[in-house]
Each structure stands twice: as structure tokens, then as C-alpha cells.
Amino acid sequence: MKPIAKNVTLLLCFFISLSFLSSINAAGENALVADTCQKTKYRDLCYSSLMAEHASQDADLAALALIAIKIASNNGSDTSVYIKKILDTTTLEPTVEQNYEDCGDHYGSALSQLDDALEALVSKNYRDVKTWLDVAITDATECETALRKGPGNELELVNKNEIFRQLSTNALDIVKVLAPN
Fold it and tell me: What's the CA gap between 110 and 2, in Å, rounded?
């Protein structure tokens, strides 16, 4: 009986050690994400959004830039769908409706710019990546300006737009770390 107990104890120690080592390894894998996000304007959002993507665990800096752009693009697509849904299902004051239509146009443009940024990143044309991301951020800023000057309280879209702008800004900041010039 004693050899079995000894083997069970040894096995238990092995699994505890294995679990401890994997947690140390996971922390090491996340060091690049943590370090990179410290260089962005919206650090907490950067870290939480990148860590939510499994692919970031083994990513190098170029892959993190790609993931960050895709995160911004996915968020922008969701916001664009939200805008279309509101326009299709809600009766709005004419000025508010126009603001939503303007934002819809800006999001169409921003999503196109993010697609262009992804293509430029894959071809390592970092100057164009930065340009396309800047334009996408400008589109989000113009949407926000239209919403803030219009009547009504479009707080949900303002919040969604702010997150999109922050994600796009973080993607740009990561590209600037990847290619400082």
C-alpha cells in the first residue's frame, strides 16, 4: 500500500509543478502584450482587447499590430450594424437621422481604411498603415462631432464610437512601436 501512496504523492507533486510552470510560462508569453500596451494611449483597453484574442499569446509585435487592427475592424463592423439597425427600425428626428446617416458613411469609410491598413501591414508598408489608421480615426472623430452637435441624446452610439476610436488609436500606437519612423 505504501508504494501506491508514494506514487500518488509523487504524481500529485508533478501535476502541481506542471501547473505552476505553465502559469509562469503564460505570464512570460503575455509580457510582449503588456509591454506593448504600455506604449499605447488607452493601455487598459489595449491589454484587455489583445488578451481576449488567443492569437496574441504567441504573437510577435507585427502580429499584435495585425490583431489590433482586426479588433478595431470587428468593433467598427459591429457599430456599423448598430447604426443600420437604428436607421431601419427607429423613427428619428430628421437631424438625428442625418447624424446617424453621416456616421454610417464615416464607418463605411473607416472600415475600408482598416482593410487597406491590413493590406499595407502585410506588405510591410508601414507609412501607408499609419495613414489609413489616421484616416479611420478621423472618420470616428467626425462621427462624434456630428453626434455631439445634433439634438437628442445618442449616448449609446457616442460610447460605441469612442471605443472604436480608442481601439483604432491603440492599433496606430502599436504600429508606431513596430515602425517608429
Answer: 69
